[in-house]
Amino acid sequence: MDWKQALKSRLAASSDPKRSDQELKDEEMELFTKYYLEWKGGRKNASTSYMSIPRFYYRLPAEDEILLQKLREESRAVFLQRKSRELLDNEELQNLWFLLDKHQTSPMMGDEAMINYESFLKVGEKAGSKCKQFFTAKVFAKLLHNDPYGRISIMQFFNYVMRKVWLYQTRIGLSLYDVAGQGYLRESDLENYILELIPTLPQLDGLEKSFYSFYVCTAVRKFFFFLDPLRTGKIKIQDILACSFLDDLLELRDEELSKESQETNWFSAPSALRVYGQYLNLDKDHNGMLSKEELSRYGTGTLTNVFLDRVFQECLTYDGEMDYKTYLDFVLALENRKEPAALQYIFKLLDIENKGYLNVFSLNYFFRVSPFL
C-alpha cells in the first residue's frame, strides 16, 4: 500500500462527525507530512550521487567573528609560506643551468646551445621535485620551433623557468597584501604594496619621503584606470600579473636604466615628478585642487569650454573642482588615447545624452570647435 492509500484509509477510519472541519484538516496535514517523509526516506537510497559532491562554498567570517578571522589569516599565511618554499631558489636555478649545459645536444644553432627531448627528460629527473612541473612534453612542444633535429634552445627554456618562478614569487608577494583573501587587491592594498616596494627600486632613491604619497598615488592610479574599467575599487591579482605594468614598475630595479626608458616609463621618478609638477603649475590658487579655468591651461591650452564642461560633469569633483586622482585619470586618458580604457573615458565625455552611442548632434557639438582629438 502506498502512502496515498494509507492516508485515505487512516482518514476514513478516524472520521468522527463530531469533529470540526479545522481539526480534520490539521490531522490530514499531520498524516500527510508523516507518510510523505516516510516515503521520501524510502527513496533516499535510490539516488545518492549528491553525497559525493564536494563542498565548494565556504562562508567568510563575519566582522564580529574575530577568532575565525584570525584563524583564516593564519591559515593563509601558512599556505603562502608553503607555496613560497616550493619555488626554486638561486642555488637551485644555478644547478638547473649547470645540468642543462651539461646535457646540451650537438650541433649548436648559431651561438645557442640546444637540447633534445631525451636529454631534456634526463635533466628533469636529476633536477629534483621542484623542477618536475617544467619538464613536461607540453612545455617542450611550446618551446619547439624550427630546429631540424627537434630540439629546443636551452636559453629559451631557462628564461621560461625564470619567468614562471618570478610570476609565482610575485603572485605570492601580492597575495600577502590581499586582506580580503579573495584574489584581488583594493586601492589601499596596492598602495601598501608599492609603498613598501619603493626602497627596493634604485631608480627611486632620489625621491624625497615627503613625495612618497604622491608617487604611490600616481603609480596606483595607472593600475586602476586601466584594470578596473567598471570602477569597482578592486583589481584581480591575475590581471595585475597579466599586464605589463608590474614589469615597468620593477624595471626601476635596473641601476643603469637609460634616460629614454625612464622618460617613457610612467612609474619612473622623472615621469611622476613631471605629472605632479604639471598639476602644481596648473593650480594657480594653491588650494590643492583644479578649477575648470585652471584645467583649461593643460597642455597647449587648446581644450574648449564645451569639452571642459563635460569633463567636470562626468568626473568626480569636490565643490566643482578636481583633485589629483581625478586629474591623473584625465592625463592617462589623453596620453593613451588608443587604449580601450582611454577610449571609454573619452566616449563618456562625447556621449552628452547618455545614450550609449554617438549621433550626429553629439559629434557636431564637439567637432565644430574641439581640437582635443
From TrEMBL:
Residues 1-22 are annotated as: Disordered. Its main location: cytoplasm. InterPro entries: EF-hand-dom_pair (IPR011992), EF-hand_13 (IPR041534), EF_Hand_1_Ca_BS (IPR018247), PPP2R3C (IPR039865). One of its GO terms (molecular function) is metal ion binding. Pfam families: EF-hand_13 (PF17958). The keyword Nucleus applies. Signal peptide: none annotated. GO terms for biological process: B cell homeostasis; cortical cytoskeleton organization; microtubule cytoskeleton organization; positive regulation of B cell differentiation; regulation of dephosphorylation; T cell homeostasis. GO terms for cellular component: centrosome; cytoplasm; nucleus; spindle. The keyword Repeat applies. It comes from the Eukaryota. Keywords: Calcium, Cytoplasm, Metal-binding, Nucleus, Repeat. Transmembrane segments: none annotated. Residues 180-255 form the PP2A regulatory subunit B'' EF-hand domain. It is found in: Cytoplasm; Nucleus. This is Serine/threonine-protein phosphatase 2A regulatory subunit B'' subunit gamma.
